[in-house]
Design goal:
The protein is mainly α and 312 residues long. The chain is 76% helix and 3% strand. It has one domain (8-302): Up-down Bundle (Rhopdopsin 7-helix transmembrane proteins), CATH 1.20.1070.
Length: 312
């Protein structure tokens, strides 16, 4: 593409969630509180898993990685959204917009694959318990996490190489609080209908494949759990229920945004908020509130902190 076709737009205008000033103040307080909970909650989970030797197992290693991805994913869009509530002109530079798209899809794709890896971990633990320590070694876990990041990177770059070359020469208003592929493509000075379908298919195929694999995996796991004794299956069932909840909450909005778009503005904004804010908030909440070992680790950490203060 020659220089004449390169983007002439240096920044985009984000219309945000609403135009009402009173609602923006309310959203500012709400999302600021939620963001702080997400950051400190996920950091706490990562630190707890690192310092507590009882949590040095493949499942919690993967959970720590999930918390890290959620924290970064939320930080890509939420701080910008919060600060924009205080601004009359909500703009983002062309480079900043492209960075948002890159990292949202890098981390989103990585999390999809990471959830599949976590399902594989539960499959091995429940269906092949005698071989668990051999199959899910530390090296294997690191390799699987690295694979999730690699797939996320390839997925994001496959879209970025196309989007950065689009000619943006006129419209620059994005009816959302962050840059996302379907909305940005609509602003290109060209017939973008087929390209939009192709880009949505790129994201949709990854989401659908991961979702189908997860459904098959957890169906097989739950069938195995049902065949086990009640005493031995209660813990596994609780763990799987938590995982399934996270899967539904994460993939639901993704499927509606990229696979089955509704083209209803307020619905798209709601799904975008749920995807970028509430899912990173609910993931650690679901895992910690339903996990007895995490609760026990928190008690041990509190006891250690109290004893340390008394000795000082």
């Amino acid at each position: 593409m020659d220089k004449g076709n390169l983007s002439a737009v240096s920044e985009f205008v984000l219309l945000g969630l609403c135009q009402s000033w009173s609602m923006q103040v309310l959203f500012l307080l709400l999302f600021l509180m939620l963001y702080l909970i997400i950051v400190f909650g996920n950091i706490a989970i990562v630190i707890l898993i690192i310092v507590d030797s009882h949590l040095h197992s493949p499942m919690y290693f993967l959970l720590a990685n999930l918390s890290f991805v959620d924290m970064i994913l939320c930080s890509i869009t939420t701080p910008k959204m919060i600060t924009d509530f205080l601004r009359e002109n909500k703009t983002i530079s062309f480079g900043g917009c492209m960075c948002q798209i890159l990292f949202v899809h890098l981390l989103g794709g990585s999390e999809m694959v990471l959830l599949v890896v976590m399902a594989y971990d539960r499959y091995v633990a429940i269906c092949k318990p005698l071989h668990y320590s051999t199959i899910m070694s530390l090296q294997k876990c690191i390799g699987l996490v690295a694979t999730s990041w690699t797939i996320g990177f390839v997925h994001a770059m496959s879209q970025m190489v196309v989007i950065v070359q689009l000619p943006f020469c006129g419209p620059r208003e994005i009816d959302s609080f962050f840059c996302d592929i379907p909305l940005v493509i609509e602003l290109a000075c060209m017939d973008s209908y087929n390209l939009g379908i192709l880009m949505n298919a790129d994201s949709g195929i990854l989401a659908v494949i991961c979702f189908i694999i997860l459904l098959i995996s957890y169906t097989y796991i739950l069938q195995t759990v049902r065949q086990n004794s009640k005493s031995g299956s209660s813990k596994a069932l609780s763990t799987c229920t938590a995982h399934i909840s996270v899967v539904v909450l994460f993939f639901g909005p993704c499927i509606f945004i990229y696979v089955w778009p509704l083209s209803i503005t307020w619905v798209d904004k709601f799904l975008a908020v749920f995807y970028s804010v509430f899912t990173p908030l609910l993931n650690p909440t679901i895992y910690t509130l339903r996990n007895k070992e995490i609760k026990n680790a928190m008690k041990r950490f509190r006891s250690y902190s109290v004893n340390l203060k008394e000795n000082i």
